[in-house]
Amino acid sequence: MMRSLRWKIAGHALSLLATLILGGLLSATLVRLAPGFDTDERELDPHLNAQSLQALHDARRQDHNILHFYFSYMTRAAHGDLGTSLALGQPVRTLLRDRAPLTLRLLATGLALAWMLALTLALSAAWLRLSVYDTLTTVVSGTFLCIPAAVLALLSVLWNVPGSLAIALIVFPHTYRYARNLLVKAYSQPHVITARAKGVGELRILFWHVVPVVTPQLLAVAGVSVSMAVGAAIPVEALCGLAGIGQLAWQAALARDLPLLLNLTILVTLVTLLANSGADVIGHVVKGQAA
Amino acid sequence: MSLWRKLACGILALVLGAALAANWLAPAGYAKQYREATDSSPSRTHWLGTDEIGRDRFARLLYGTRISLLLAPAAALLSTLMAALIGGLAGYLGGIWARMAMAVTDLFMSLPWLFLLITARALMPLNVSPVVSVLVTFMLLGLLGWTTAARVLCTTAGSLRTSDFIRQARAAGLPKQRLFWMHVVPNLKPVLYAQFWISIPVFILAEANLGILGLGVAEPLPSWGSLLKELEGLVSVGEEPWKFVPLILLVVVVTSFQLLLSRQEEVAA
Prior knowledge:
The complex is a heterodimer of chains A (291) and B (269).
Chain A: H1 2-33, H2 50-61, H3 66-78, H4 92-128, H5 131-145, H6 149-158, H7 163-187, H8 190-197, H9 202-240, H10 245-255, H11 258-290
Helix pairs in contact in A: 1-3, 1-11, 4-7, 4-9, 5-7, 6-7, 6-9, 7-9, 8-9, 9-10, 9-11, 10-11
Chain B: H1 3-20, H2 22-25, H3 57-93, H4 95-109, H5 113-123, H6 130-144, H7 147-161, H8 164-171, H9 176-212, H10 224-228, H11 245-268
Helix pairs in contact in B: 1-3, 1-11, 3-4, 3-6, 3-7, 3-9, 4-7, 5-6, 6-9, 7-9, 9-11
């Protein structure tokens, strides 16, 4: 068990590293090929003479080679230098450090609320087995699924509700859909029907026969929901005026701040991959214990 | 066909029909400005009022619906073709090809969809003509939205590759190309068709999100995203409820697609 777990973790670590390196290379290539890569506002400064302009141009010449550009970025990143934001004029590292706590709080609260709502509705739908109730919950979640995330963010500003609730309402319909289907399927298993017929209590059925079956799959959905919440944080922070990583990504996109975008891409890839790998490893442990 | 599906079909046909007939139904062009009636409430001449520079909201809604409803399927077609090319072919070839294709798919899927979109959109020039901005936005949706479909197609093509009838056809000496076009592609069609329909509402919502964030279709061309951007200036819901009409229409259209899709999703799964 421990050995297979170690192999699982090692496999995930390797895949994470490979994806990060490849993802970084892909974003560096896109950044390098993007229109306006070779422009520098300092060149518009009338105080600079021809030699100074040439010196600026020479300094950027090495970055024309994509591999050199990426390798020098990785080397600097390994020493803690993530570069400077072109639009905000501040070190990227400082920007990320200052803004990360707010986003983490927002994501944690939003995800907790989304999962509480999804599991409560899904469990009650599976327990009650009333078609009216099931239809009602499906309609509610379906309606939220049809509203753009940015509109939910705007409505949260309009109704003066916290941004975390907007994130919860964006993530909830996706998690509810999976959780409901899994729970309904688990409750329709022959051994659960037999247990019910024998008069076993609902709580006992839930914790002994349903939870162990659905937990690994729910954990996988939990990993994916982190990625959804990170995506939802962009419109929510941008439109609610919350100074987090999501707002930073939006500002970087609007200002075409390429160094900042490169760092954010790698950071977001890391977070989502860690969440998915973590969920998979915990799921593996839970499955092993259940067996 | 159930009653709900018939209703969804009817709604979609009606909305698409109205959008296509925008030239006749709209009281004016989407960019015509009534300077004497800026930011006005609904009236007989302007059914949904006018925006802050005096453009008729109803006309903009009709033209915006046309853009979103015609280009989202075009982007869905592009993404489905890419998925077929990458996922279908990789699944059929199997081995290292399938592993490589899935590694690229995983790479794209490791980033949240909206983050990937705004990053890629930011890498394109922002100060482009409105028509180019429409093309860039929907092409990006098509070029980045193929991953989930590719994964499904790779699995389906992989299972087809090892199926008995393909093995028998191969053993009978059927050339590889003929085998692919005559036996594999026709069996992938239901999944491709399902993936195409599933992508449409996803792309409609993605364009709306990009538009609200200011990274979608450029002014003066309207789209659902740019029309919904007007909600940003609202102080309360009851103040100007007619501004919610584009949102209601969007929700109705996406819901109609979802109702139609429940069967397609079963096929895709």
